[in-house]
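Late entry, written up from scratch paper. The run itself happened at the end of the previous shift, but nothing got recorded in the book at the time, so transcribing now.
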Amino acid sequence: MEKLMNVDEAATALGTSSRFPRRLIAERRIRFVRVGRHVRIPASAVDDFLRENTVEPIVLTWRAGRVA
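Output as recorded:
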């Protein structure tokens, strides 16, 4: 079974305060599981969130003073 993290653990994994994962949950921007009154975030959901929101750098190629 996959590890389920509480909000504070997810915040640590994301490098943020606990307010940020709570906002992601409220806005339904990250997968989560309700266990009674508790909210848990699967570790894979944090990984997916980071992968989907990673911005790759643009590689510029210079040709005769122009950007290709």
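The chain has a mean pLDDT of 92.
(Scratch paper discarded after transcription.)
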